């Protein structure tokens, strides 16, 4: 019997998930464009902050902060499910993703920097490019809009303003 996943607490996460049977999905430009369209659509809808990403040929790494109204599990369900649905319509294909995902909750600024660097260096370590900015399917490539990690000062201000200890998942716009 498969263990039941507990819901993850609010925060920023390094997440990895793989294509079905680890097939080389993201070597096809139209598949990549569709994935980015789905992810940036949910980002635009403020479902999560996107801090870094890389689409390797057979897996994806994300550094995201789900909105306070969304669990990490739901955010990934939106991304993976939204892509699977759109992919099926566009390309008449079957299974897209392996079940589940792995995650690591970011503890502090050093941990954030370490995982962002890991994401950026992944294509270099796999000998796909010489520099992170040369890999077209990752956040260091010029032109991708990313969100800053919420700073401690913003979180402290949010705590004082709202009277809660929850971190603000997005920059605040106050009256």
How much of the residues is beta strand, in percent?
5-15%
Mean pLDDT: 84
- Order of helix and strand elements from N to C terminus: EHEEHEHH
Question: What are the segments in which pLDDT stays under 50 over at least 5 consecutive residues?
Answer: 152-175
Q: How does CATH name the architecture?
A: 2-Layer Sandwich
CATH superfamily: Transposase IS200-like
Percent of residues in helices comes to: 25-40%
Task: Enumerate the strands of the largest sheet in spatial order, edge to edge or round the barrel.
Answer: 2-3-1-4
How many β strands by DSSP?
4
The largest β sheet comes out as: 4 strands, antiparallel
Q: Categorize the overall geometry.
A: globular
Radius of gyration: 17 Å
How many domain modules? 1
- The top-level CATH class is Alpha Beta
Indicate the structural class.
alpha+beta
Distance between the termini: 51 Å
Please report the number of helical segments: 4
State the oligomer. single chain
* Annotated CATH topology: Alpha-Beta Plaits
Can you walk through the features of this model?
It contains four helices and four strands. 37% of the residues lie in helices and 15% in strands. Strands 2-3-1-4 form a four-stranded antiparallel beta sheet. α1 packs across α2. It is of the alpha+beta class. It has one domain: 2-Layer Sandwich (Alpha-Beta Plaits), CATH 3.30.70.
């Amino acid at each position: 019997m498969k263990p039941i996943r507990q819901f993850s607490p609010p925060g920023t996460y390094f997440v990895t998930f793989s294509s079905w049977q680890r097939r080389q999905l993201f070597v096809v430009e139209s598949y990549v464009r569709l994935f980015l369209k789905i992810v940036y659509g949910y980002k635009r809808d403020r479902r999560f902050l996107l801090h870094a990403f890389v689409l390797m040929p057979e897996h994806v790494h994300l550094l995201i902060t789900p909105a306070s109204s969304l669990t990490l599990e739901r955010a990934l369900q939106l991304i993976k499910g939204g892509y699977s649905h759109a992919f099926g319509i566009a390309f008449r294909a079957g299974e897209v993703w392996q079940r589940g995902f792995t995650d690591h909750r970011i503890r502090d600024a050093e941990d954030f920097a370490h995982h962002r660097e890991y994401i950026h260096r992944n294509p270099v370590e796999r000998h796909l490019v010489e520099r992170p900015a040369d890999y077209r399917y990752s956040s260091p490539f010029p032109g991708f809009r990313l969100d800053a990690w919420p700073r401690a000062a913003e979180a402290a201000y949010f705590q004082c303003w709202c009277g809660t200890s929850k971190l603000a998942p997005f920059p605040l716009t106050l009256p």
